[in-house]
């Protein structure tokens, strides 16, 4: 049998551009922690399922990252003169699974000023991207323009946009959040082109120790990818630990 060769599907070009335009230049380090989602699950039930776990993580992470200017920094410039740019506000990029022209692919939406929004407001933005078709009229129109360019050109355009800190934050967020919670996968360790990226695994009822007793609690793995050129492990660990604490003591805002 002969090998079948075909062009990279157009719907996959966004991922190709993301990887070759920025993510492969980042020095990734990964951390993870288990999160007890008991109060998060209670809040989701109280909202009749309207508030999703992704939006809760976006809210908790935005509140924490807002307190750490170093975690909000974006690396700019080349090897001869690296600089850190701290943009005002905190925005979040949320990764979503879509099928475009029969091809399953990842698309993204940005929640601007996530730190200033309530969880309900964040969910409304996320729902806009979840419900929108991938067409020339909706929120994915810029992504489609990039996909239709020749691959070398799309890479150049993407990298040019990353040179402007404000455009970069609008394009890729101050941090990103991706989830594999719908599948029986415990953890995901994302690629990032920014400074921070959180990954959400599936919530699983798990035996845990509380006050000397073993109880069953809903746990999930929350991972953090960070750019080691911008942050060291101690600060990144502190950020992840504070996000975990906020999620485990969840209070609806």
Provide keyphrases for this structure.
seven-stranded mixed beta sheet, about 250 residues, single chain, Chloramphenicol Acetyltransferase, about 35% helix
Could you explain how this protein is built, in words?
This protein is of the alpha+beta class. The chain has a single domain (about 30-130, about 175-250), classed as Chloramphenicol Acetyltransferase (2-Layer Sandwich). Helix content is about 35%, strand content about 25%. The chain is built from 8 helices and 9 strands. The chain has helices spanning about 15-20, 40-45, 55-65, 120-130, 140-150, 150-160, 165-170, 235-250; strands spanning about 30-35, 75, 85, 90-100, 105-110, 175-180, 195-200, 205-210, 215-225. Strands 1, 4, 5, 6, 7, 8 and 9 form a 7-stranded mixed β-sheet that branches. A two-stranded antiparallel ribbon has the order 2-3. A hairpin with a 2-residue loop joins strand 4 (about 90-100) and strand 5 (about 105-110). Helix 3 (about 55-65) crosses helix 4 (about 120-130) and helix 3 (about 55-65) packs across helix 8. The longest helix is centred in the last third of the chain and has 16 residues, at about 235-250. It is globular. The termini are far apart. The mean pLDDT is about 90.
